[in-house]
Design a protein that fits this description.
Distance between the termini: 118 Å
Low-confidence stretches: 1-7, 27-76
Organism: Heterocephalus glaber (Naked mole rat)
GO molecular function: G protein-coupled receptor activity; olfactory receptor activity
Strand order of the largest sheet: 5-4-7
CATH architecture of the largest domain: Up-down Bundle
Pfam families: 7tm_4
Number of strands: 7
Strand content: under 5%
Largest sheet: 3 strands, mixed
Structural class: mainly alpha
Helix content: over 70%
CATH class of the largest domain: Mainly Alpha
Main location: membrane
Number of domains: 2
Number of helices: 14
Protein name: Olfactory receptor
Radius of gyration: 30 Å
CATH superfamily of the largest domain: Rhodopsin 7-helix transmembrane proteins
Shape: globular
């Protein structure tokens, strides 16, 4: 073969390779799936260099969504656990936070369990209103116990790890009790509406069986939310390092850590969570608007004061709980998890469960009378 013939053959291979590259670069991953036979035929005659061009092109189209975001499969791995960054790296400040949270948790447990026991042993409080209140106190104990003990342990530990199973379990229980608490608050509003607007039908409408069914529905709604959201989150892949900028396994930081697109999980969280929040808020608003209209028709000032005092504590608890949960969960999650979100989380996981028994006992005459009666009889 002469030198000119060899040079001409090399030029033909370069032209052949360039043509294949142009052809491949015009293909998208969806085109290749549709025309797989054509592409296979091209690959059969393609050079190794052209195949590498195709591979790089497909990987780029698949994993680069835009110029500012590169999601590579190298960053995703099988998750065995997470590292909770907690609230502070300062050991002295961690001890201070531990002391505050420990006191808050003790008050929460003693206050709520004390209210449950008081309602159980006082015949004066054996009414539908206090039946729902005892369930609210039980939920507050569970709600706080899911997160606070682990947070206290992590504050004194140098390695704040949680297994994947432990993280999913904590998140699942959290969803159940948070959703159930929304439903219980709505049931309490409906109970107050029936008691004030239809007092003659109150004991018929709020019978023991109906109250039990309402509470069972509250927990069932929380269970449905948990199954939908948790199942979706466990299907996600998470980017390394597996660190959560939070003090417990919550939904927003987990979604912010996801390598795979969490759009379905976001839809489920906003859909199921939004449905629970919106329906319970609608029930509460309709109930209290009707209550307000009825109270304004009461001629005596003492009657109005008693009705307002009965509803005032419930409205306070509702405002605190719904305000913080809506701020946390009904917003986009892909912008990271900020320190301000941690403070809001502290408020609804620790402070509100502590404040609820104080709100209901200090502003409720029936609870105070029942408590003083038991204390007097004990002496």
């Amino acid at each position: 073969m002469t030198f000119l013939a060899l040079r001409e053959l090399k030029e033909q291979r370069r032209t052949h390779s360039r043509n294949h590259r142009k052809m491949f670069l015009n293909f998208s991953p969806s085109d290749i799936e549709k025309d797989s036979l054509v592409v296979f035929g091209i690959l059969f005659f393609a050079s190794e260099e052209t195949v590498m061009v195709l591979e790089n092109h497909l990987l780029t189209n698949r994993y680069i969504k835009n110029d500012s975001q590169l999601v590579s499969m190298e960053n995703a791995s099988i998750v065995t656990g997470f590292i909770l960054l907690g609230m502070t790296d300062n050991p002295w400040f961690a001890v201070l936070i531990f002391g505050v949270f420990f006191i808050v948790y003790i008050i929460t447990v003693l206050g709520n369990l004390g209210l449950v026991v008081l309602i159980g042993i006082s015949s004066r409080l054996h009414t539908p209103m206090y039946f729902f209140l005892s369930n609210l106190s039980f939920l507050d104990v569970c709600f706080s116990s899911i997160t606070t003990p682990k947070t206290l342990a992590n504050l004194l530990s140098q390695l704040q790890e949680v297994s994947f199973l432990g993280c999913v379990t904590q998140m699942s229980l959290f969803i159940i009790f948070a959703s159930a608490e929304c439903n219980v608050l709505a049931s309490m509003a409906y109970d107050r509406y029936t008691a004030i607007c239809h007092p003659l039908l109150y004991h018929v409408t709020m019978s023991r069986v109906r109250c039990l069914l309402l509470v069972a529905g509250c927990y069932l709604g929380g269970l449905i939310n948990m199954v939908a959201v948790t199942t979706s989150i466990t299907q996600l892949s998470f980017c390394q390092p597996h660190t959560l900028p939070h003090f417990f396994c919550d939904i927003p930081p987990l979604l912010a850590l996801a390598c795979s697109d969490p759009w379905l999980t976001q839809i489920l969280v906003v859909g199921f969570g939004g449905f629970t929040l919106v329906t319970s808020i609608v029930v509460i608003l309709i109930s209290y608007l009707s209550i307000l209209m009825t109270i304004l028709k009461i001629p005596s000032a003492s009657g109005k004061q008693k009705a307002f005092s009965t509803c005032g504590s419930h409205l306070t608890a509702i405002s605190l709980y719904y305000g913080t949960t809506m701020y946390t969960y009904l917003q986009p999650y892909r912008h990271g998890f900020q320190a301000g979100n941690q403070m809001v989380s502290v408020f609804y996981t620790m402070m509100i469960p502590m404040l609820n028994p104080l709100i209901y006992s200090l502003r409720n005459e029936d609870v105070k009378v029942a408590l003083w009666k038991i204390l007097r009889n004990s002496h």
